[in-house]
Specification:
403 residues, 2 domains, nine-stranded mixed beta sheet, 24% strand, elongated
Amino acid sequence: MIAIKPERLLADLRTLAKFGQYKTGVDRIAFSDEDIAARKWIAERYREAGLEASMDRFGTVYGIAPGVNKAVLIGSHSDTVPQGGWLDGALGVIYGLEVARAAQEAGYLPFGVDAINFQDEEGTYLPCLGSRFMIGTIDDAALDAAHATDGRKLTDAIARARLSGVPRKLDPKRQIAFLEGHIEQGPRLESSGNKVAVITSMAGIRRMTVTSEGRADHAGTTPMNMREDALTPLLRFGSFVVDVFPKLSSGETVWNIGRIEATPGAANVVPSGAGLSLEFRDSDETVLDRIEVAVSEQIAALNKAGSRMSLDVTTRITPTPMDVGIVETFEKAAQDVGYGHERMVSGAGHDAMFLARKIPTGMIFIPSIGGRSHDIAENTKDEDIVAGCVVMARAAEILACGA
């Protein structure tokens, strides 16, 4: 039986949080000194657990169970956003360590448990770099072009970190499934009182920029009926989002206008240009398509009325369903250990969405206090951290025993 040790699990999580500690959170962005030090520490913990550990030239850390030809792969990422939380990603990494270690302590299992710590899930240089490279969806051209928002190149960051290990490709013949644990990053579990959410799908994402053209004039001397104000039609479009999106959405659709600006941005100048960013997410591609069509039609209608607006779709990420068998395995595991659970769609992206393209994949969430995440206020009760790992261990055991 794979039996985790709660005190060891919590101690490892708190030790990992010291790498890049920032107030009550962590600042451990990909390829920083703190990030690389944390990854070396993880590799050493893998070795102590009896795994064959290595770190590749991107900083992804692998822990391979010896003496087996098939294994369940468990993990996440230890990089963070700037001034982020101590559990985002790190929780799943330590879950992988603890379950793999407990599996080694349990003795013989038909299949092993491998552990992994992916690099740059947060996208400092290239979102989900480690998991995407592992499944072969990133080429050399993308790696050469990747850079941080301040212009730092990925290739320079790799050189500075002195990383040279050979990246490991996913081996579907060995890794029979991938499991990831994460905090919810939202308030639903805390509200329902359940210990675990079993993820059924990763939501698809549509992200776009809407721009409007006008003409700059003196705001104090140009009559209202003679202005070409770029901002006014953009505000009308924003009102359309607020009023119409609820009618187009499903029960799980979320949307956001995250940026709106006008140029030249002076109180006494009629805006000559304006723009906003719009994003919406849902696990149903038909819902995403329906909303995108409505957006295009609304912009066309505004242009017909005299506006000069344009739409640029910058991101299209297809919804990613989790493996039905893994979903059911997680639900059985939660039932076996006596924890309340529910199904949920993940609105955020995770490494699991890429592994799911190649092998059966599943994911669980545990509660976030106050729904907080990507902030130093991020936290989860110790008992909930332990509960999630118990469910993860039981699910791994079911899979490792071929059930």
